[in-house]
Amino acid sequence: MIEDYQRQLEHVQKTADANAERTRKRAEAEMADLKKTAEADADRTRKRMEAEIADLQSQISRLEADLAKVSPRPLDPCRND
Predict the structure, then answer these.
(1) How far apart are CA 39 and CA 42, in angstroms?
(2) Spatial separation of the C-alpha atoms in residues 45 and 36, rounded to whole Å
(3) What does the pLDDT look like over 18-77, one tens digit per residue?
(4) Number of other CB atoms surrounding residue 64 within 10 Å
(5) Does residue 81 have a pLDDT over 70?
(6) Which residues are CB-neighbours of 68 under 8 A, at least 6 positions away?
(7) Are 74 and 68 in contact, with CB atoms under 8 Å apart?
(8) Which residues contact residue 75 at a Cβ distance below 8 angstroms, ignoring those fewer than 6 apart?
(9) What is the DSSP string of the chain?
């Protein structure tokens, strides 16, 4: 009778261990997928910001060129006259 309980206990422990291992593997796979998604999102955001910065720099250059056409002297941010 005790041997039957020990066998049942061992079976339950093995089943629990197997379930825990499957759950751990599934969680690791989900974490890897989440990491890939987060890295892709961060990369898209970084590229979008870099493109916006380049666009703003281009716009600043165009505005400086337009201002140079109407202003007889070069712009000097240190001058106050």
Answers:
(1) 5
(2) 14
(3) 999 999 999 999 999 999 999 999 999 999 999 999 999 999 999 999 998 887 666 566
(4) 13
(5) no
(6) 74, 75
(7) yes
(8) 64, 67, 68
(9) -HHHHHHHHHHHHHHHHHHHHHHHHHHHHHHHHHHHHHHHHHHHHHHHHHHHHHHHHHHHHHHHHHHHHH-SS---TT---
